[in-house]
Specification:
Elements lengths: L12 E3 L12 H18 L12 E5 L4 E4 L17 E5 L2 E7 H4 L4 H19 L15 H19 L2 H21 L4 H22 L3 H16 L8 H16 L13 H9 L7 H7 L2 H28 L2 E5 L3 E5 L4 E3 L3 E4 L3 E5 L2 E5 L3 E4 L4 E5 L3 E2 L3 E4 L2 E5 L3 E5 L6 E5 L2
Parallel strand pairs: 1-7, 2-5, 6-18
Antiparallel strand pairs: 2-3, 4-5, 6-13, 7-10, 8-9, 9-12, 10-11, 11-16, 12-13, 14-15, 15-16, 17-18
Helix pairs in contact: 1-3, 3-6, 4-5, 4-7, 4-8, 4-11, 6-7, 6-8, 7-8, 8-9
Keywords: Plasmid, Signal
């Protein structure tokens, strides 16, 4: 199963997993069918999963064609410009709406599409319940070690979902051991992973569970999600989409009703360990062997070698060569398909990228480098400028009033700053 990503009030909006289909205006009849299917699943749940209904107003839009459809009459208020761009909660009038882009949904099979709409609807409930945690990119999951231990954890979680009894317990202990090994190597990223598991993992779990026709279907969908995310190019923003449903379904079996007590400060993996009264497996080498660790390590080593030249070229383009340096922050949409980390610098987003902030509006489709701490963006080789617009290779920046472009610290660099 493939799943969309989303945004909240404190997160940039992201779409992961696969390229968007060709642009087309919103088909009103199909959109109403999508809304009806998602609402039927939500009403079937009747608030049992989270103690309250996640049936929310929904809007699907296409920003290029400026068409949209709503699940209920739209409010008498200006339509938010991010409709058709954002996947996630949007305030429209006095109401929060679960928003999706038509391109994200149009070509998906029904169970994936339903999970996406329910995922985004849950984010609104999640905000009300204080279950949203500020997140950053898990850049360590683009490193060979990070990917290796994550893939092993996912393999063990898939086995745990397939098995039962003592076999399931052993697989969970293995998954926890792989997670512990990764955290030992990247201790400063433990909170980053936990925050993503809460904010996006819970939403992914909710979409998978409520869209499934049975427990067996939910387990099959979670296993598909693990395999689908593993085959992706980048894990820096997608890990929780796979881990969330897996840990959530295992918690359903080990600790029924856990969704009523989970807090923003919790760690689903730790919750499962406590519920089963177990510890991570202690014989790490034996656990690694059970899941083909040698083959995974070899694959990650090959990937790292193949990427060396690519990273060097991108470093020349986004770091060493002439760039526009501008602030981070803002809100909008960014596609993490193919995102690549430059170690000790940041992550380059190669997909469709639209962000707005006090500094103006940025549109790009050929690479934006976001620093590791999220405070700055770099764009390569600015080539044309006037008072309000700056363009470069695959990007355009509309400069807001009160901001200006000045020469950077290095020859050839430019910098976007507030006017004095």
């Amino acid at each position: 199963m493939r799943t969309s990503a989303s945004c909240t009030a404190i997160l940039a909006c992201v779409v992961m997993g696969h390229p968007a289909p060709a642009v087309a205006q919103v088909d009103q009849q199909r959109a109403q069918q999508f809304f009806a299917e998602a609402r039927a699943l939500c009403e079937r749940d009747g608030g049992r999963l989270w103690g309250e209904s996640i049936c929310m107003p929904m809007v699907i839009g296409d920003a290029r064609m400026q068409t949209f459809a709503t699940s209920q009459p739209p409010p008498d208020a200006p339509r938010p410009k991010l409709i058709g761009i954002v996947n996630g909660p949007i305030r429209w009038g006095d109401t929060m709406w679960a928003a999706m882009s038509w391109a994200t949904l149009a070509d998906e099979p029904p169970h994936v599409r339903d999970a996406m709409l329910l995922h985004e609807s849950f984010h609104i409930v999640q905000m009300r319940r204080g279950l949203v945690v500020e997140t950053t990119l898990a850049e360590h999951l683009d490193s060979p070690d990070g990917r290796y231990w994550l893939r092993l954890e996912w393999h063990a979680l898939a086995r745990a979902l397939r098995d039962s009894g003592d076999a399931r317990t052993r697989a969970v202990r293995d998954a926890l051991a792989f997670r512990q090994a990764r955290h030992a190597r990247f201790p400063d990223m433990v909170e980053t992973e936990r925050a993503l598991d809460i904010t996006e993992g819970l939403a992914s779990y909710t979409g998978v569970v409520l869209a499934a026709q049975s427990e067996a279907d939910a387990i099959a969908a979670a296993i598909d999600e693990l395999a689908g995310q593993e085959s992706g190019e980048s894990y820096v923003r997608t890990a929780a989409y796979a881990s969330g449903p897996a840990y959530g379904l295992l918690l359903d079996a080990a600790s029924p009703g856990w969704t009523r007590t989970v807090r923003a400060s919790d760690d689903p993996a730790a919750m499962l360990m406590r519920a089963l009264a177990i510890r991570p497996a202690t014989d790490l080498d034996a656990a690694v062997a059970r899941y083909g660790g040698a083959e995974i390590r070899a694959a990650e080593d090959r990937r790292a070698q193949q990427r060396q030249a690519r990273v060097a070229e991108l470093r020349r383009r986004f770091v060493d060569g002439p760039v526009l340096l501008m602030p981070g922050g803002g809100s909008g949409f960014s596609d993490s398909h193919g995102a690549l980390v430059i170690p000790d610098v940041g992550t380059i987003w190669f997909g469709e990228y639209h962000q707005k902030g006090p500094w103006g509006a940025l549109d790009a489709d050929n690479g934006v480098l976001l620093s590791t701490d999220g405070s700055t963006r770099r764009l390569p080789a600015p080539v044309r400028r006037d008072e309000t617009t700056l363009t470069g290779d695959g990007w355009t920046l509309q400069i807001a009033p009160g901001w200006m472009i000045r020469e950077g610290a290095r020859p050839g660099d430019l910098e976007l700053v507030r006017r004095p």
